[in-house]
Every structure is written in structure tokens, then in C-alpha cells.
Specification:
Structural class: mainly beta
Shape: globular
Number of strands: 10
Helix content: 10-25%
Distance between the termini: 32 Å
Strand content: 25-35%
Length: 223
């Protein structure tokens, strides 16, 4: 495939294929390291707020879009920064593993995140997804502290087109991998959004982590 054909393929972002994979769930680290206390988990207060007797949706309690906010075109991702938990990591593109899950970056590099190549770019309308390990056999990895991120925190995503998309966190939750709410996590809210995902929940040597920590964020600035 020529470079031009490759770029056209990336711009198309075939959501139908991505949705089929994402709605099934997301497998991250299959077997993590065993620590005395484990990574921090989201507090109940960090959950996406909903009104009583109302089904939760990603758009609820999200920060309002800035007036005349520019929606960006498709671009690969270069770097992700989450200053509140001291994350400043390069981002590689990832595809699908042999079992059809979104793959994770190589665990040998603890400071490396992944962006699914055929998904939404951070800054485009829709929910872009960045993933990373919570730990590896040697210790904590890039998103070890993700569960401690608070509402209102900023996430900066540097893109290869020279633009940076800035997102504000409006929710942090942990979901069981056996009942992962794909439609809620990955659904298009009509705004440029970001999901940052790593492993969390309970841990066992046989199964690894039984859940995923998900950060919900909405774009509030471009530069």
C-alpha cells in the first residue's frame, strides 16, 4: 500500500469495525505484578455524575465545550501528558492482538502508552482511546496512578500534525472486564472526547486484574 493510500485509510477511521471490537470489551494487562497495596482505585466521588432514575451516559456532568472550539482532523498521536499524576509518555499506535482485543504497548517499556490506529484521533468528534499498562513484572507502569486522577484534571495529547488537544476530566470509574459497558465508554457524545484506560479492580495471579479503570474527559482547548 502506498503512503497516500495508507493516509486515506487512516482518515476514514472505520467506526463500524472499531465499535464491534470495543463493545465486546477491552483486554489490557493479562498478568500484572503483585504489590502490597496495588494501584490506586477511583473514589466513588470521581464517578460520572447522573441524576436519580436516569441511565448514566458519558455526556452527563461533562464540562461544557468552549465557544467556537475547533474540532481537529485525523492525526496520529505523539505524546500524552497528565500533569496531576506526573505522566509524560510517548504514544505508539496499536492494533488488535491475536484474540481480537485492542492490543497494549509492549510491557517491557513502563513509560509507553498506545493509541488504536483505526480509531478516533484525539481532537476529532467522537471518543478517542489511549491505553497503557498499570504495571509490569518489575513494578508500576505509565498509568499506575490513573485511578487517582480527579475531576477537573487536564490531559494534553500532542499530535503528529503539530496540534495539541487539551481535555478536562469529568469522571473516573472502574468497570469489570466481564461486564464492560462498551456503549457507555466508547459512544459518540457529539463532542471530541477522550478515554484513558488501564487495568484495575481486584487482582489474582491466575487472571491478573479483573477490571479496567476508565478516565472520561472532554476537549476544552486546542493549540
Amino acid at each position: 500500500m502506498s503512503e497516500e493510500e495508507t493516509q486515506q485509510s487512516r482518515r476514514r477511521s472505520p467506526w463500524g469495525v472499531v465499535a464491534l471490537v470495543m463493545l465486546t470489551g477491552l483486554a489490557m494487562v493479562r498478568n500484572g505484578a503483585e504489590f502490597e497495596h496495588g494501584p490506586p482505585q477511583p473514589a466513588a466521588a470521581a464517578a460520572v455524575a447522573v441524576r436519580p432514575q436516569q441511565q448514566p451516559t458519558p455526556a452527563q456532568s461533562a464540562p461544557a465545550p468552549a465557544p467556537n472550539l475547533e474540532v481537529l482532523e485525523h492525526s496520529s498521536v505523539q505524546r500524552v501528558r497528565i500533569p496531576s499524576i506526573s505522566v509524560d509518555a510517548p504514544v505508539m499506535t496499536v492494533g488488535l492482538d491475536a484474540e481480537g482485543w485492542i492490543d497494549a504497548p509492549p510491557p517491557q517499556d513502563p513509560n509507553l502508552a498506545g493509541w488504536y490506529l483505526n480509531g478516533i484521533s484525539p481532537g476529532q468528534q467522537g471518543s478517542a482511546v489511549i491505553v497503557g499498562h498499570v504495571d509490569n513484572a518489575k513494578g508500576p507502569a505509565v498509568f499506575y496512578g490513573l485511578g487517582s486522577v480527579r475531576k477537573g484534571s487536564r490531559i494534553e495529547v500532542q499530535r503528529y500534525d503539530g496540534r495539541t488537544a487539551v481535555f478536562e476530566v469529568y469522571g473516573v470509574e472502574v468497570f469489570s472486564k466481564d461486564a464492560f459497558p462498551g456503549a457507555r465508554v466508547y459512544g459518540d457524545t457529539g463532542q471530541p472526547e477522550l478515554r484513558v484506560i488501564t487495568c484495575g479492580g481486584g487482582y489474582s495471579k491466575n487472571r491478573g486484574y479483573d477490571g479496567n479503570v476508565v478516565v472520561f474527559a472532554r476537549m476544552v482547548e486546542t493549540r
